[in-house]
């Protein structure tokens, strides 16, 4: 399994942008489908974005569609979440997740239970 470390969180004003990074260590990173989830205080963890192991398929929660993009750099074992036009309601701890998907290279996964590796999270705070 890969180990994941997120970075790039911080405080930003509404309307601003942030790019979160997720560094993966371990073998065969290119065989892993990746996802981003978030959890706000007092709320359950929710799906944000998913990316297939091939990098060719993506899926976004309706709440972030058109504002967030997800990408990967397999040469660097990195996954990114570019967040634009941030809103106060985007405030949360953001988690990177991974699951092995070597056969279904274009599959994306929205359910957190389908992921086996998780990072420690990075805080994103959007002020009004």
Task: Give the topology, please.
Blueprint: E1 3-7, E2 10-13, E3 18-25, E4 32-39, E5 46-51, E6 58-60, E7 68-73, E8 78-83, E9 92-100, E10 117-118, E11 122-127
Parallel strand pairs: 2-11
Antiparallel strand pairs: 1-3, 3-8, 4-5, 4-9, 5-6, 7-8, 9-10, 9-11
Outline the structure in words.
This protein has 128 residues and is an all-beta fold. 0% of the residues lie in helices and 49% in strands. The chain contains no helices and 11 strands. The strands form 2 sheets. Strands 2, 4, 5, 6, 9, 10 and 11 form a 7-stranded mixed β-sheet that branches. A 4-stranded antiparallel β-sheet has the order 1-3-8-7, with no helix packed on it. The model has no long low-confidence stretch (mean pLDDT 96).
User: Approximately how much helix is present in the residues?
Assistant: under 10%
For the secondary structure, the number of strands is 11
Strand content: over 45%
Give the distance, in angstroms, between the N- and C-terminal Cα atoms. 39 Å
Envelope shape: globular
Number of helices: 0
Instruction: Assign the structural class, choosing from mainly alpha, mainly beta, alpha/beta, alpha+beta, or little secondary structure.
Output: mainly beta
The largest pleated sheet is described as: 7 strands, mixed
Low-confidence stretches: none
Order of helices and strands: EEEEEEEEEEE
Please summarize what this structure is.
The chain has 128 residues and is mostly beta strands. The chain is built from no helices and 11 strands.
